[in-house]
From TrEMBL, chains A, B:
Organism: Aquamicrobium defluvii
Region Disordered, annotated ranges: 1-36
Keyword field: Methyltransferase, Transferase
Protein name per the record: Methyltransferase
E.C. number(s) listed in UniProt: 2.1.1.-
Enzyme class, UniProt record, top EC level: transferase
Any Pfam family: MTTB
UniProt key word Protein transport: no
Family the UniProt entry places it in: Belongs to the trimethylamine methyltransferase family.
Length: 528, 528
């Protein structure tokens, strides 16, 4: 596979030549694009926050939760299920292993995690799209996991590989989406054992942003790594990080063989794992915020430390997915105060571990992209960003508690992401920002519309929404009384129509196709 | 009017007897009601934030803006229009008055503001509904000002006194609305010169929460004070605060005779003024955040200091209303990053002046209660609350850039307010909150649904939304595929149907009716 590495270098060179006009990391042009509210075109680099974070726990509260998590790890322990290798590794590391349950001496996990990097670069096949994960960086990635879509004709139906490609394309075009994500929807028209090949290929072929790997079986993780090596080259993959993948705990306090298998594959190849307790509080964790945070911390400590047993220095994220169950229906609820408190608190705990942090997104329980969806998504996204989250999965397109990927919601959400990105730039205190000349020039009782300063800053001063209708009531009536999702629908159609694939070296493309064909041939047809 | 004071004492006694079961300020029962997501019933006391605030400017940035504001006050000055008395007062105070323009020596306004209280109590006719304004308190009040309503039949039409009463009733019933507000809509079916009498009467008759006074003419402010005296008694009004009213600057850098006239009336009677530059950045202030903050601070310093010239010690708030104009249509935009930054920054400047702070609410530009309305409102409300805002006008019901009060939006917004109130309680770190027994009892691989801790905390653990549908897709389909506003519509109808007026002493009621009848008789009929 060293051939493909050579090819990749060429491709990278070609891309650099081709992309010269785009400007790495944006600058004024990209900022203008962002302020213009999106639209396919100049892409924004991941966010580097100039703003502080919001915190909900003081030192005493944090120390209490850390002490309690240590107690859970030592007394209750964590199950590593059906994975003798993992149990043996923990024994070697000094843990007290009883059956499948691992009890951790105080401080063991923390000490193992000292080898984990606080930030890392996830390389994209287009180097301009590579992202930093950790520190002051925030990266937005699309929705992950839904088996259904709500399509542009208003149907709610099972997702297909065509939908998958469409969401990859939209994410590629969205200026404020920095990452192509993973299972942007489940392409249920492809057999489950082959699906990952088409998904990984779609991310590579239809986008040039970084992406996530398959975690549904260790061999699918291996396939992902193999495909990444065709794109980036063997050595590059082994010595860098080109995949960030999702390793969910089976809360409460279990890691199962599937996730452990995938985690081992990725960590061994120096690829990043997001160790995430997927929590519906009240069902998978205690019904209180502090209790949930304690359990989350214990689970992450065990799972993340495990990656360091596999390969010290492999990137690993402190992840959490926070929701509460509805006491009426048992269904997950979003955008409510308790998950926000969990996210803020978990972000603080992650910072104290020097680990990059993942939570939140644009989460909602609504079945349609209505006001409920928007309130819940905005509440979640605001707390996600102000918590200082480094990797934001589900940042766009999530509907119906994660059961459906929604095109219209995707377009509305990316507009919101653009706003968050602008917010994170903070207050411009330059002389131009201070605008004292403008105040002097205009003076009392006049207006600033035509003054020099307004004219000079007109284009870039305010974020310009691609979705919002700010016209008069009369004009809105005349234009057909459109709702926000109706406007979003129109833009999604325009984008998909005007989509152009990024350059991919034909040699790499053929290599990927060959690999997929060979793999698929070796698999039983009817396996689903 | 000392009779009415005596009557009021009796009424208060009766209310106390009647309200014994309600519990002053809530306690467990009120918290349960809040968590149940609202519904008419037990009322919540104003928020006492247990959480910190989010800040966007550091010491250097704040000092820079303060220095610039001082420069504006000294060099550019502020116009006090058509008010010779005000100009004379400024002359006496040591300002440099040139025509109508007042130039302020450095430090003059700040020094005058030392007499303004950092917090005050606004008394309600039901003492249990009195609110603290300032410090760690946050008070939610309804939308203010719209000439139109979007009614429960989906019509957008001019507002009537019937609508006004309805919004007062809904605000009275809403647990997380702490204040009855002011012009909840403009009752355009009542002549403009008489309208204030019916509005003030509605607040008193249909609610027992604190309310705002008329500011559209000095004599209407006097009428408001006179009516308050019928309710509270002369002495009580002169020595306490029972009105908090809105004094807008005519930005840039003008206070006009109407607002100055009203401000003088209220301050003289020890009633509170919210001095608020109403800013559409790019038109009424510079197009940048720092420039807008500078102008806002200069205007507030001048306007708030003026109230202290009128009566040292009269309560005054640092207000701001932050919006940006759309560069396409010139219309105000909401929920975008720049107004959030202005709100956060202004809150910091207010804290440094030791003044209570007003900004934000549930602002949006959408013409209907759709996803645009919700995204914009949630963005605004989140920044409003995290900024540490003390008085939140427009907290519910605002639509269409403030042109319409919307019943459905009102019901959706109060649900969001309940969430914010719960959020502000912060993380419970008690032994029960830590839930260590629950984690021990449940252990790995099980679930928390039935455990003792969950059972004990089931009712109060999670905020329960009154609007969100968290049911399965299939159940939602079976129930008619309702949108959030459709559910809100139903609840509003139920509330208005089940509304019961709070007790009002018949003597006070007659006194108010007599006053209004005499006033109306003395006015020309056709004056509009």
């Amino acid at each position: 596979m060293s051939d493909s590495a050579a090819v990749d270098q060429e491709a990278a060179g070609a891309r650099r030549a081709r992309g010269a006009g785009r400007g790495a990391g944006g600058g004024a042009a990209a900022r203008r694009a962002a302020r213009a509210g999106g639209g396919p075109g100049i892409q924004l680099t991941y966010i580097t926050r100039k703003m502080g974070v919001y915190e909900v726990l003081d030192e005493e509260g944090l120390a209490l939760i850390e002490k309690n998590a240590d107690t859970v790890l030592e007394e209750t322990g964590i199950i590593f299920r059906d994975d003798a290798e993992a149990l043996e590794m923990w024994k070697q590391a000094g843990a007290d292993v009883r059956g499948e349950r691992v009890h951790f001496p105080k401080g063991l996990c923390r000490s193992l995690l000292r080898s984990a990097p606080s930030t890392y670069t996830q390389h994209a096949r287009n180097p301009e799209r590579s992202v930093q994960i950790g520190g002051k960086a925030t990266v937005f990635a699309p929705v992950y996991g839904p088996p259904f879509v709500r399509d542009l004709d208003g149907n709610r139906r099972y997702a297909t590989i065509e939908d998958f490609r469409n969401f990859v394309k939209l994410a590629y075009m969205a200026p404020s989406i920095h990452h192509s994500g993973g299972t942007v929807c489940e392409p249920v028209d492809v057999p489950v054992n082959k699906r990952h090949l088409d998904m990984v290929y779609s991310h590579i072929r239809y986008s040039d942003k970084p992406f996530m790997g398959s975690v549904t079986a260790p061999e699918r993780a291996e396939d992902t790594v193999a495909m990444a090596k065709i794109v980036f080259g063997d050595d590059f993959v082994e010595n860098n990080t080109v995949l960030t993948s999702l390793i969910n705990a089976n809360s409460p306090m279990v890691f199962d063989e599937t996730m452990l298998g995938a985690a081992k594959v990725y960590a061994r190849h120096n690829q990043a794992c997001i160790v995430t307790p997927f929590i519906l509080a009240g069902a998978m964790s205690p019904v209180t915020v502090a209790g949930t945070l304690t359990q989350v911390l214990a689970e992450v400590l065990a799972g993340a430390a495990f990656t360091q047993l596999v390969r010290p220095g492999a990137p690993v994220l402190f992840g959490t997915f926070a929701s509460s169950i509805s006491m009426q229906s048992g269904a997950p609820t979003f955008g409510t105060p308790e998950p926000s408190l969990v996210s803020y608190g978990a972000a603080q705990l992650a910072r104290r571990l020097n680990l990059p942090f993942r939570t939140g997104g644009s989460l909602c329980a609504s079945k349609i992209p209505d006001a409920q969806a928007a309130y819940e998504s905005a509440n979640t996204l605001n707390s996600t960003v102000l918590a200082g989250t480094n990797f934001v999965l589900h940042a766009a397109g999530w509907l119906e508690g994660g059961l459906a990927s929604c095109y219209e919601k995707f377009m509305m959400d990316i507009d919101q992401l653009g706003m968050q990105q602008k917010f994170c730039e903070g207050v411009d205190l330059s002389e131009n920002g201070q605008a004292m000349d403008a105040i002097r020039q205009v003076g009392p009782g006049s207006h600033f519309l035509g003054c020099d300063h307004t004219q000079a800053n007109f284009q870039s001063a305010f974020y310009r929404s691609s979705i919002a209708d700010n016209n008069s009531y009369e004009q809105w009536l005349a234009e057909g009384e459109k709702t926000a999702p109706q406007r979003a629908n129109q833009i999604a159609r325009q984008w998909l129509e005007s989509y152009e694939a990024p350059f991919l070296d034909p040699g790499i493309d053929d290599g990927l196709k060959d690999f997929i064909a060979r793999k698929k041939e070796s698999m039983p047809d009817a396996f689903t």
